[in-house]
Task: inverse folding
């Protein structure tokens, strides 16, 4: 039997994908692994096969691997097809792609034809349905079959999918850590299993931080409907609930969402932080570049191919599901939601605008300000003091005192007593200790306005 890329991978103790990358130089492989692979190529005689690669393709019976997919417009299926095509070529097979257009009757017709096609050595299937009963015929056949990207129920078939629950959990936690609490999620009404898992990750993230899970922020949409229908549904949800962030839980939904956000005129990320699903090429090109949950198509395809080859070689088929982690690729479509220690919403300094009348009132008031720093022996406090002085001087306000407590709360109390004797209209302070100094600041607040920086 002719040596295959699988034989090389087994000899080197690496994956088929690593062998493929080493041969084709399509991705970085460490020198140590590359050396193992090249040694295995020589020892197995695969180098002879490589030198006549054009003549290495199988012909006739059992020479084709079928990849049955819902569409080829999605980047995920496009990438999976590309990886599988490369792996199959390296092993001597041809990859034939069959498109179901997400139609169950079309899928059944394609699978029936493949079962009687003597050229088909095996099938890699991205199933439309998740019901095991819809695939009983193909699973009872002698044809090697694995599922990829989508799974079916039960344990009669090996399924290689992305870790939907943990992936979505990671995305929501990123937004929660950024201060968001009103986070919407948009689910594809047609992908039952995957969407249930992504919704579970969404829900679990809220529960783990004791945040409120709001069912009204869960929007389900059938992607077979028009983009106009999506825009209307999203606009209604946004107008009623005003989320500060939204996650699209599918590739098609991501594109629909970004078009709707753009058409409505929502400022991303200032008004709405957005996380998409699937790393489409345009995601990094738009402004701002989109934060996405990115599936590891390379690993998914490699695992599916390896399992299919095991079945073709007559080995006992694996059963059940294998999940591959999803990576959160953070770009600039999400932003922090600044919150004060008691939940106060942050606002941009650009929103603080004084009228000409207010400016004149400040100049006429001859106000005095004292500054109480926790420590002033670094560039940070010098820059802040300069900025404060320059800003106040523009309005004729004088700085009567600047003190440095050297991180000593008792010293700051003494300095505040001395400052109070100058009867400032305003005290700008960074408290050294929020408990030790609290009573003193409360007493000062009876006679002077207080502004705190950094500490409260």
Result:
């Amino acid at each position: 039997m002719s040596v295959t890329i699988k034989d090389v991978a087994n000899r080197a103790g690496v994956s088929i994908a690593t062998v493929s990358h080493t041969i084709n130089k399509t991705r970085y492989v460490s020198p140590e692994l590359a050396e193992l692979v090249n040694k295995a190529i020589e020892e197995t005689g695969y180098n002879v096969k490589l030198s006549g690669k054009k003549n290495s393709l199988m012909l006739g019976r059992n020479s084709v691997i079928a990849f049955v997919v819902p569409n080829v417009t999605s980047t995920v299926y496009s990438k999976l097809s590309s990886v599988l095509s490369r792996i199959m070529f390296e092993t001597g097979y041809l990859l034939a792609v069959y498109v179901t257009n997400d139609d169950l009757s079309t899928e059944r017709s394609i699978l029936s034809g493949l079962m009687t096609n003597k050229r088909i050595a095996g099938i890699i299937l991205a199933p439309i349905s998740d019901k095991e009963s819809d695939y009983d015929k193909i699973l009872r056949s002698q044809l090697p079959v694995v599922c990829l990207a989508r799974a079916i129920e039960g344990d009669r078939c090996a399924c290689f999918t992305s870790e939907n629950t943990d992936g979505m959990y990671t995305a929501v936690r990123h937004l929660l850590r950024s201060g968001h609490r009103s986070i919407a999620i948009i689910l594809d009404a047609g992908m039952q299993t995957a969407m249930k898992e992504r919704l579970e990750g969404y829900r679990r993230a809220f529960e783990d931080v004791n945040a409120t899970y709001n069912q009204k922020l869960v929007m389900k949409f059938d992607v077979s409907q028009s983009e106009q229908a999506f825009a209307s549904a999203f606009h209604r949800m946004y107008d009623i609930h005003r989320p500060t962030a939204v996650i699209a839980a599918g590739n098609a939904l991501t594109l629909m969402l970004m078009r709707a956000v753009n058409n409505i005129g929502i400022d991303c990320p200032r008004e709405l932080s957005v996380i998409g699903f699937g790393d489409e090429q345009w995601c990094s090109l738009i402004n701002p570049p989109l934060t996405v949950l990115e599936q590891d198509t390379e690993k998914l395809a490699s695992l599916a191919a390896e399992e299919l080859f095991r079945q073709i070689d007559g080995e006992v088929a694996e059963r059940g599901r294998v999940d591959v982690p999803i990576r959160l690729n953070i770009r600039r479509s999400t932003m922090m939601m600044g919150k004060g220690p008691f939940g106060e919403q942050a606002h941009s300094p650009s929103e603080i605008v004084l009228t000409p009348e207010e400016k004149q009132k400040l100049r006429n008031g001859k106000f005095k300000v004292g500054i109480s720093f926790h420590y002033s022996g670094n560039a940070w406090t010098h820059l802040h003091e300069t900025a404060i002085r320059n800003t106040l001087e523009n309005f004729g306000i004088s700085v009567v005192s600047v003190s440095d407590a050297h991180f000593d709360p008792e010293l700051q109390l003494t300095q505040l007593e001395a400052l109070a004797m100058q009867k400032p209209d305003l005290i700008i302070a960074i408290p050294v200790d929020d408990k030790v100094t609290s009573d003193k600041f409360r007493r000062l607040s009876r006679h002077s306005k207080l502004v705190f920086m950094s500490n409260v």
Q: What stands out?
A: The chain has 16 helices and 16 strands. The chain has a mean pLDDT of 88.
